Amino acid sequence: MHWADAWLKEAMAAGLQRHPNAMTIASCGRDQQPSARIVLCKDFVPEPGYLVFYTNYASRKAIELEPMLSHTYINLADLYRSQGRDDLGEKVLKQALELNPSFSDVYHALGLLFVRQKSYSKALEHLKKATELAQENARFNYVYGIALHSRQKSQDALEVLKNALNFHPYDRDLLYALTTINRDLSNFEEALEYTQKLIELYPHDQSFRQLEQLLRSQL
C-alpha cells in the first residue's frame, strides 16, 4: 500500500490526467456474475492496509456491494424516476422485495411509483403493506391515508390516520389530514377538535386559527 499511496500522490501532483485516482472495482453479485464500475480512490491507509473509494448510492454497484440495504434500491429507483424511466425503477424495487419482503420503505416507494403511473389499486396495496410492516411510521400512514381519501375511501382513511395518531399524538401532518378529511365529510365538530389541537401545538400558525373560524361558522 505504501507504493500505491506514493504513486497516487505523484500522479495527482503531476496534473496530467483529469482523474488520476480513477479505478475499476469488480465484484460478484448473488448470481456469481462479475460486474465492474469506475470509482474514485480517495485515500490509501497503509496500516492495516486498505483503500477508500467513493461510489454512488444510486447505482447498481451500490446494490451489489450492499444488497440488503433498502435505501440503495430506493436511491436507484429515484434516479430512474428523475430520468423518466419509472419502468426500470419498478424492476429495481421489485428486485429488492424478492431479496427481503420486509422492506417497508421499498413497499412505500413502490406505492408512490404506482400513484405516478395512475395504477391506484396497486398503489393502495403497496402503501398499505408499508404501514403494516412499519405501523409506527407516521409518514407511511399519512401518505396511505391521503391516498385512501383521494380514492373516495375516506372512512378507511380516517381509521388509518387515527391509529397512527395513537403512536404520534403531536404529528402535524396527521392532525391536519384528520382535520381536512373530517371537514370534507362535513364532520365539523371532529374537524374542530383536531384544529384546536393544532392551535395548541402551533400557536403562531395563523392558518390554523383561520381554519378554526371557518369550522365554527359551519356548526
Explain what the structure shows.
This protein is mostly helical. It folds into 3 domains: 1-54, no CATH class; 56-134, Serine Threonine Protein Phosphatase 5, Tetratricopeptide repeat (Alpha Horseshoe); 152-219, Tetratricopeptide repeat domain (Serine Threonine Protein Phosphatase 5, Tetratricopeptide repeat, Alpha Horseshoe), CATH 1.25.40.10. Helix content is 63%, strand content 11%. It is built from 11 helices and 3 strands, in the order αβββαααααααααα. The protein has helices at 2-14, 60-65, 70-82, 86-99, 104-116, 120-133, 138-150, 154-167, 172-184, 188-201, 206-216; strands at residues 22-28, 34-45, 50-54. Strands 1-2-3 form a 3-stranded antiparallel sheet. The longest helix has 14 residues, at 86-99. The radius of gyration is 25 Å and the shape is elongated. The model has no long low-confidence stretch (mean pLDDT 87).
Termini gap: 77 Å
Number of domains: 3
The oligomerization state is single chain
Mean pLDDT across every amino acid position: 87
Strand order of the largest sheet: 1-2-3
Shape: elongated
- The number of helical runs is 11
- How many extended strands? 3
Helix content percent band: 55-70%
Q: Could you name the CATH class of the largest domain?
A: Mainly Alpha
Order of helices and strands: HEEEHHHHHHHHHH
**CATH fold node name of the largest domain:** Serine Threonine Protein Phosphatase 5, Tetratricopeptide repeat
Main sheet characteristics: 3 strands, antiparallel
Q: What class do helices, strands and sheet pairing give?
A: mainly alpha
CATH superfamily membership of the largest domain: Tetratricopeptide repeat domain
Strand content: 5-15%
The low-pLDDT segments are none
| Radius of gyration, CA atoms, in whole angstroms | 25 Å
CATH architecture tag of the largest domain: Alpha Horseshoe
